[in-house]
């Protein structure tokens, strides 16, 4: 399986900065409430199935899927890619990797993400 849709944390932050992608957090509601990206909307993976997943998203929209470690969001990205969605991406390493990057205070986007 190709990994061209797994974005590293820095790539994902650049995508967030451009604000030209829909950000979908696939964690459960109790995880989402604990903490999430401001730009994200909550659509738990448990609420999606093969019948409705394709209907929830547009094939031409750019979507970044996120979860805690990147596994659940990757599964959804793989599924949608197999269904012809070419602009779906996964936050590789999930929010854990993103938090690690931000804790190192790598200046990627300015003070909002320092």
Helix share bin = 25-40%
Oligomer: single chain
CATH-defined architecture:
3-Layer(aba) Sandwich
| Number of DSSP E strands | 5
What is the ordering of alpha helices and beta strands? EHEHEHEHEH
What Rg is obtained from the alpha carbons, in whole angstroms? 13 Å
Contiguous helical run count: 5
The count of domains is 1
**Lateral arrangement of strands in the main beta sheet:** 1-5-4-2-3
* Beta-strand content bin: 5-15%
Biggest sheet overview: 5 strands, parallel
| Fourth-level CATH superfamily | Rhodanese-like domain
Summarize the structure.
With 114 residues, the protein is an alpha/beta fold.
Walk me through this protein's architecture.
This protein is of the alpha/beta class. The chain has a single domain, classed as Rhodanese-like domain (Oxidized Rhodanese, domain 1, 3-Layer(aba) Sandwich). The chain is 39% helix and 15% strand. The protein has five helices and five strands; from the N terminus they run E-H-E-H-E-H-E-H-E-H. The chain has a five-stranded parallel β-sheet with strand order 1-5-4-2-3. The longest helix is centred in the last third of the chain and has 12 residues. The protein is globular. The relative contact order is 0.23. The C terminus is likely disordered.
Provide keyphrases for this structure.
single chain; Oxidized Rhodanese, domain 1; 39% helix; 5 helices; alpha/beta; 114 residues; disordered C terminus; five-stranded parallel sheet
